[in-house]
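Problem: given the chain below (210 residues), write out its structure.
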Amino acid sequence: MPASQMTQAERSEQTRHQLLAATIDLIMERGLAGATVNDICRRAGVTTGALQHQFGAKSELMAATVAELFAPFAEAFPASDNPADTQLGARIERLVTRYAKIYADPRYTAVIEILSATRHDRALEAAVNQYRDTQVENLANHLRTEFPDVDMPLERMLECTHLVVDLMRGGAIRMMFDRSREAEDGILKGACQILLARFSAHHDANRGRK
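Solution.
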């Protein structure tokens, strides 16, 4: 739609989107330190005044960037009607595939840059941690409801799942240097096998059924 036909709200939303996209692109290309206000505005095709109008300051822009990049980690898992009626392996594959899609996103490079920067930026660390806390809470709820037939303490299920997610995260970093469909499929398959082996040892096919 031409800018002349947009409402003020639509133009504002477009500007906000352009600034967020430009910020993420520059973080991916140059790192967090290389994403300066002037370069962000130049990449977005807007003035520094537009950035101030949308976000007030760069710190608020970075908080919005964190929200854009980290929100997928914290989204609630879709619920199943009768999870115990679905094969254990299929439920595990669904869980692992969710994380695989996040780590396969090219923007994960920007996530890594932000995570590294949290060591020296308390405000950035706090912004990231709120999404991490929500992610852990949602994962715990998912494990509790989606795997009622796995006779394992929730803390242990979380530990096993986090181990697999950590391995996938490492695989995502490797893919930054040597990406291939075969390697991505291998990481997904390996992660599923590891979690299936852990959960299968405590699986009761009749547990959780009405």
